[in-house]
Amino acid sequence: MERGGKTVFGAAVGILMLETRFPRIHGDMGNAMTWDFPVHYKVVRGANPENVVRGNPKELVDLFVDAGRDLVAMGADGITTNCGFLALIQDEVKQALGVPVATSSLMQVPMVQALLPAGKRCGILTISKATLTPAHLQAASVPLDTPVSGTDGLRCFTRDILGDAPEIDFEACRLDMIDAARAMVADTPDLGAIVLECTNMVPYARDVRKATGLPVFSIHSFINWFQAGLLPKGFPLELDDPRW
After folding, report:
1. Is residue 41 a part of any domain in this protein?
2. Which pTM does this prediction carry?
3. 182-195: per-residue pLDDT in tens?
4. Which domain holds residue 84?
5. Which Gene3D superfamilies would you find in this protein's record (predicted)?
6. Which of 185, 120, 116, 112 is nearest to 142 (CA)?
7. Which of 41, 79, 81, 170 is the 20 to 30 A CA-CA neighbour of 13?
8. Cβ atoms within 10 Å of 213's Cβ, excluding its own
């Protein structure tokens, strides 16, 4: 007998989206074709890149909770967001929604650090080093001495994403990512892996990997792992296999 209680079945992950207009290419969290599984989306009206990354998202927590409740009622079994800076509201949202919540790619840092050999460190590449504070790191259980680099001050990535530009030069953004990653490697000789804070960085993860030679983790890797727990893949039992 099947259990009900949802409106939509077959999609486990619900994504809370900031209110934006900039284009989202394949690989971006907000492009539905990025995912190999169905997801739910909900726009959090009144939350945008400027007031989340450069403002205080704790002032917007009620908006995220209300939108998250809509996703859970729709059928989501777990909730994520499309901005790493929302680590600041992780505790409030998970308590209010009563389901697993993964607000930020930054939450991967402790796990990635545990994978690395002695003498190697996990670093963070962010869209705004200027506003990524110790409070953000603490909220994601990230050690405060974790190296951080950003795309601030480069060609267009930070400017156009946070400025919500209606058109974006994605090739220039790719070069921003490569330059920022190479600078991070030069500044951090013991760097062993990189976590991309910004969900819009996913399309360039492979470029960063090629440019640095280091493993690169993103919201894409995180939510694929999240999905695998919310809806584990089924495997048929072939009990009549003659080899057994």
Report:
1. yes
2. 0.94
3. 999 999 999 999 99
4. 13-104+224-230
5. 3.40.50.12500
6. 112
7. 170
8. 7
